[in-house]
Amino acid sequence: MVPPDDVTSLAVPPLDHKDNQKHCCSPLIMDNNPEECSVCFNHYDDLLRPQCLPCGHTFCSQCIDKGIANVQLTCPACCTQHSATTAAQFPINYDMEALIRKHKSTQVEPLQTVAAKPYQGPARGISKMLWSLVEAQKNSISSLITACEEALAELGVYQGQLGDWKTQHLQLQDRLYGLVEQNKAAMELLELENISVVDMTTQGEAGKAQLQAMLGGLNIVNTAQEAITTIDTADHCNMEVEVWLQKCQELFPDVNAVHTSVKVQETIRKALEMMTTEAGVTADHVYLGDSASSIMIKVQEINLGICHEKLTVDDLRRMSEPVKRLVEAGRVLAVQQDQDGCRSARITLQDGKLYLHPLMHQPMPAYAHTLQESEIVGLMNPSCPLVFLDLGWAGSTRGRVTIQLKHDVGLSRQFVFLCTGQRGHTYLNTKLLKVVGKGEVGEYVYGGDYESNDGKGGAPLLPNIEGAECKYWESYKAGTVWPACNPQGARSTQFAITTIDNNEWEMYSDIFGKVVSGLDVVREAVSHSKITEVTVVDCGIVLSY
Fold first, then answer.
1. Are 440 and 478 spatial neighbours (Cβ–Cβ below 8 Å)?
2. Can the peptide bond before residue 253 be classed as cis, meaning omega within 30 degrees of 0?
3. pLDDT at res. 467
4. 8 Å CB contact between 80 and 106
């Protein structure tokens, strides 16, 4: 992890700004003016709205947007790093806005003439001790009035949220009514079709009875005249039945009725399958944290607890809004139990992509949702495996390098193991070791020594690991990833990334990946004065959902 002093935080005021505050890399010292942003010192308003970071500190939306770099945001108050691409990802601090509105409503216009300050001492006949009790009671009442105003402000925000939910229920109800109307229309079509079938059935049974009668009549004819008459009648009956048969073929089935019925049934069945609650089921217990928490914080806890003890890999695939909030809150982890005990890996959502970070021995957050690591890894696209390395060094915000690996190749499988930690070792905290041909054609950098971190180690994690033999990507083009050492040797896990094209080399062996994003991060690292200061501060794989 990059130390806090080495990351870029939110922009702080320039030297000539309010009170000549000095720019420094230390965490921002919060002041006693909650109605203004502690970074730009502007008062919160409809444009500069107060937004709360997951660490609990609040800043204006403009400063948060300015402070985001490389999908990372560092809190200037406590230096905690948050993943973000826009300020809109962080919730509005409604409590702060309510407090500011209350503060403005209690302000009074200054009087043209200042009235004499009334005497504040005890009235005659009241002792100082009794007066002190009076003052204490006044202070107690004032505190309760303030507490009441704050509670009323929270209730106002909560009431607004309840109104929003009611509107959403009404919208859902309208959609449900729409499904009901579609169902009624489909049933009406089926009823009309059934009436037609009943009518045709009646006609068919009558025709069948006539045919049976004609057959019996032909069996008992005694004269030529009876035979001729019966045959003529039978011919007429045969024609009627043939017409009936033709109508059956033409009229049935009614394509519109059948198609509508099947389609509506499928739509309603899917809607019912997605329902997660049943009538009469009591709410699961949800941890509400500190009893002194605000109403809306407790509401958020309830929302985050909706999927408690029910989360599955399929839930991650569907990524419903409650599951998304759980992932964004860091409450979903992948776990693996082995001889070294239980390890867990973070699952994060950034820019619409789901990332699995390496397994580590780390404390589990309260009320976390856990899934098996092996199941989570199964979400990676096997035909197009993507991994990532986050590089960081002194004086720089870390940047992400995303690499596409060749599928079903030993070197690629080994790279995935070292990004996830499934085999106990990872690229996490390993250094880049050396730049070869710096500034020249074919320049490349290599690293990946998880054992000694000095270029002397990196034993293979797989037996008889094979090379890539990949000719799909041009060899040694900028961004190609290839083994820096013999794939079957003692430094098998060390890898190289080409940073400057080399069109002169015609070798096409062992290239097993290419950088699909973040090549500029690698080149910036290469330009750093001391390459061994560049560290893999995070790594993992990109999941599909």
1. no
2. yes
3. 57
4. no
* Exposed e or buried b per residue across 248-270, where buried means at least 16 C-beta atoms within 10 angstroms of its C-beta: eeeeeebeebeebbeebeeebee
Residue type, 194: N
Nearest to 415 by CA among 542, 278, 271: 542
Q: Could you tell me if 484 and 405 are in contact, meaning their C-beta atoms sit under 8 angstroms apart?
A: no
Q: How many CA atoms lie within 13 A of 386 on its CB side?
A: 17
CB 100 within 8 A of CB 37: no
Q: What is the pTM of this model?
A: 0.49
Among the listed residues 92, 9, 78, 108, the one whose alpha carbon sits nearest the alpha carbon of residue 44? 92
Query: CA 106 to CA 115: how far, in whole Å?
Result: 19
| Distances in whole angstroms, Cα of residue 409 to Cα of each of 415, 418, 462, 468, 489 | 10, 15, 11, 6, 17
CA-based R_g, the chain, Å: 37
Helices (H) and strands (E) in the chain, counts: 11, 16
Distance separating alpha carbons of residues 213 and 146, to the nearest angstrom: 99
Euclidean distance between CA atoms 342 and 203, whole angstroms: 75
Q: What is the pLDDT of residues 129-158, one digit of tens each?
A: 888 888 899 899 999 999 898 888 888 888
Specify whether the CB–CB gap between 136 and 143 falls below 8 A: no
Q: C-alpha 269: how far from its chain's center?
A: 26
